[in-house]
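Chain and conformation:
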Amino acid sequence: MKIISAEFETSAAKPGQYPEAVLPEIAFAGRSNVGKSSLINTLLNRRHLVKTSSTPGKTRLINFFVINNAFYFVDLPGYGYARVSQKERKKWGPMVETYLRSRSTLRAVVLLQDIRRMPGTEEIQLIEFLEHLHLPVLVILTKADKFSKSKQAAQARQIRGHLKLKENETVLFSAKTRQGTDEIHEIIGGLLMEAPTDGQTL
């Protein structure tokens, strides 16, 4: 997957604000501060297209980025950040669920998991929900550079066991070293070529 152009298009809170459903989309989901913005910027070879922040919970709308004028990356609001008000958090669930349920051009969801932590209830429930919707899921283990290679492998095995994933269903990633970038490009390129047909992870 070669990136020629990448531009922010719009932010949305409801279907009427989404771009026209013509181009295929890949959505990115994960906890606040898991590294979503860093992953997207690295994949697109841009430093500041997606704004990163030291304050978790900054992404509060669904953000659409048009890539190569051929497909979208969709940045979903991060979840699990306690400092965001309960009222605000309650808005995010229905907003994201509506997008996932209704978006006909959505090809797959990239779920980010910090390799230093074990998945929580939110990650398990999200994978189950996406399988129910017959949407493929790619799990990215972020911040891999924080561990040695042997520790990466051991932690990845534990996380896969927790999420009931196979070895080829996760990719180790580091924004600092770009570890995993080529592999993720290849997988996403394949996802964009076909519509989801079942609820299996990739």
In short: The helical segments are 36-43, 86-102, 121-132, 149-163, 181-192.
